Amino acid sequence: MSSAGLPARKAALSILTEVLRKRRPLDVALAATEGLEARDAGFARAIASETLRRLGQLEALIREFVPKPPARNRAGPAPEILLAGACELLFLDVPAHAAVDGANRLAQADRNAVHFKPLINAVLRRVSRDGKAVIEAQNAAELNTPDWLFMRWADTYGEEVARAIADAHQGVPPLDIVSKGGAIEGAENLFGNVWRFAEPQRVDALAGYEEGLFWVQDAAATLPPLLLGDVKGQKVIDLCAAPGGKTAQLAAAGAIVTAVEREEARMAQLFENLARLKLEAETVVGDARDWRPKEPVPFVLLDAPCSATGTIRRHPELPWIKSASDVTLCSQAAGDILDSAGEMVAPGGLLVFATCSLEREEGSEQIDAFLERNGDFTREAVKPEEIFGHHELIDANGDLRTLPCHLKDKGGMDGFFAARLRKK
Ligand SMILES: C[S@@+](CC[C@H](N)C(=O)[O-])C[C@H]1O[C@@H](n2cnc3c(N)ncnc32)[C@H](O)[C@@H]1O
Fold first, then answer.
1. What is the CATH classification number for the domain harbouring 349?
2. Does residue 405 have an active-site annotation?
3. Which positions in this protein are listed as binding S-adenosyl-L-methionine (predicted)?
4. Which residues does ligand 1 sit against, CB inside 6 Å?
5. Which of 37, 248, 379, 380 is the most exposed place for a label (fewest CB within 10 A)?
């Protein structure tokens, strides 16, 4: 027996237990891959991400083969070993002997899971024999979407669109790159300066990375800053700025940007990104609710913290670690920041509010409530020509409303909301 792949599988198991038991975000749990060789780190990431993307399906499959699966509190990591092993077999096309042997070794190494080694071995052998047929008969989108989320989307967008959103979450998302100008070799131009690779790529290995010719940003995330219009030579405050995708976009468009971010470590990431891109912005580490500019400015962009349910394609753990109360908490926090943002806008100026959430409390309802509290602002509808003619991305209020099922034929896009508000 070979132990090839064991470090990667150990790391994947640690990531899955961190996410599923401690509700840690995947990006944070991925620290378990530090120190691994690039290939092992990639394999660990693939096992963990795909297990989370397919969690509902994998749990249903295992229930079919083991009516009484190992109890989470008495079996150490046995449940996660089973899930990851089944994922390797059915979704990552790992040869049966390697996946089953890997799972056995993980169970052997844990004093609680070791008692379940015979069970793990037997179940994974059955999965390798009969699992494909079970998976093919499942309704993947339904199983992989918790009810609380599906019901919210059906309520807001209707059943058909909710299903299309859930379907869009089943695949690995494309990689979108924003170019500072030129074409990106090997990628397709989506619109404006946005280029798309259909398959995941190692970004730092792409031509032009070291020279700072581009940055990574989902196509949908590039649209809110465009709603400010021509910002060349204009003062723009970018609130909640890190890691700086929108700061870079505004600076590259010639704006004089002040980027405000609360988390020092995240601001360090913004610095690093701007330095590589050879772009400049004034930076302020501070809370947007307390900080104020010396004088109001003509343009403010607020990319508010949110439940991030529009980014489930890129963060497949979100459905399993978030809950409806997170949506409420996030919308309350964003409402306070939005009121502060309003105070920073000069008369006649524009405020763009954006979130990467699909939830209406964090989108249109947030704006309705803001307008009720702040009579000196009005909604200014987005025009299709401002977003490359994509009229389907504008809702009945005239706000930007992208969904993961939009641009389906080209690989979809994140769910973003943005409203443009003009101060009288
Ligand atoms: C959605 S992310 C911003 C993404 C960023 N605009 C970009 O395009 O790369 C939200 C950011 O808001 C920051 N944040 C949350 N509450 C804040 C507050 N009260 N003041 C300033 N920043 C805050 C978070 O630390 C996080 O970095």
1. 3.40.50.150
2. no
3. 240-246, 261, 287, 303
4. 240-246, 260-263, 266, 287-289, 303, 305, 337
5. 37
